[in-house]
Amino acid sequence: MKRPIRVLVVDDSPTMVNTMAALLTMDARIEVIGRAGDGNRAVSLARLLRPDVITMDLLLPGLDGPGAIAAIMTDAPARILVVSAVADRGADLAFQAIRAGALELIAKPNVTSGEELRRWGRELVNSVCLMAEVPVVSRRARRDAPLPPPSTGARVDIFGLAASTGGPPALAEILSRLPKELPVPVVVAQHITEGFTPGMVRWLSQVTTLGVSIAHEGERLEPGRVYFALDGHDLTLEGGVARLSRTRGGPCPSGDLLLSSLARVYGSRAGGMVLTGMGEDGARGLLDIQQVGGVTCAQDEATSVVFGMPKAALDLGATTQALALSAMPDFIRQCCTRPFDRPRGGFGEAV
User: Fold this and answer.
1) Where would one find the signal peptide in this protein (predicted)?
2) Cβ 98 vs Cβ 169: under 8 Å
3) Which of 42, 212, 231, 236 is least enclosed by beta carbons within 10 angstroms?
4) Can you tell me whether residue 253 is helix, strand or coil?
5) Nearest-CA neighbor of 127 among 141, 110, 108?
């Protein structure tokens, strides 16, 4: 019989710790092996118990969540799932935690009893079980790699990126190394729990000279800016403007929908990347770009936190290029600045 997933629960509220432990242990696949109410205790128990997964609150007495995560990832690497309230400070701390090594984040429930709490408990269990499948890695230095020549074809007029687990730090790496004068817009589908998108946008705005914002319905996209979907919505392109629609289930926002819309609107002048993440989202959308002659690539296995999404894209034939994360900013720059290969319409016009 497969051994249970060993979980350490960290929260400064005894009620929340007990609630989470009860919800987790209702599933036979999970065993709660420790509880901590502050960051220093969490670090000590992580070193002593070596849990498979740690659920981590952020607003902790003494050493806060990001500080505890940084210490754990240095001394006793583990898969860390942030469980935090969605508030301005909590959302901002969440992305400090991601930078420190946390893999995912989910919002705390707004209720403490009833069916809504049980529904949230099922989400928590599912997240923990998915986390347990992710390889454990300590903090790694950036791996530089030679840049392969870009695909031949038209100059790219827009780049779409799809990402899930491990995506925010990968996006930070890419966006921080793109120039303010980037001549195209960048659109992103990053799977994220509803409520945390504004915090992610604020965090990424601090690491790049590009403008980073949440797209508005009907907004015309501008070069040198990065656009994310509104919480709980899918982002697509129609003409040169953003379209937002409430997600209808599945990964949110959808990488497939975003990338497919770029293929329809920009044709061979579209560029797409599938970054680290669980599942297969983005692969079919990237294939659509590849089939109209656009530029496609996927993050390589060595630099992906989770190779699921990039592998799906490669297996589907949506791209033949698997690039190290450190090579992706130069790849985008080259594709956006090479000479045009034929006459074309104005910026953002459909082909």
Assistant:
1) none
2) yes
3) 231
4) coil
5) 108
Q: Active site residue: 52, 57, 127, 191, which one?
A: 191
Catalytic residue among 281, 288, 300, 304: 281
Residue ranges, comma separated, of all CATH 3.40.50.2300 domains in the chain are: 5-131
All CATH 3.40.50.180 domain ranges of the chain, comma separated, are 158-337
Task: Kindly give the confidence (pLDDT) of every residue in the chain, 351 residues in length, as a single tens digit, with 9 standing for 90 and above.
Answer: 689 999 999 999 999 999 999 999 999 999 999 999 999 999 999 999 999 999 999 999 999 999 999 999 999 999 999 998 876 565 678 888 998 999 999 989 887 668 889 999 999 999 999 899 888 865 544 455 555 555 555 689 999 999 999 999 999 999 999 999 999 999 999 999 888 899 899 999 999 999 999 999 999 999 999 999 999 999 999 988 999 999 878 899 999 999 999 999 999 999 999 999 999 999 999 999 999 999 999 999 999 999 999 999 999 999 999 999 999 999 999 999 866 554 333 334 444
Closest listed residue to residue 121, CA positions, set 25, 3, 11: 25
Helix (H, G, I), strand (E, B) or coil at 28: coil
Single pTM value for the model: 0.87
Q: 74: which 2 tokens?
A: 């240095």
Is 281 among the catalytic positions?
Answer: yes
Q: Which of 164, 260, 268, 304 is catalytic?
A: 164
Residue whose token pair is 């799977």: 191
CATH (residue range 5-131): 3.40.50.2300
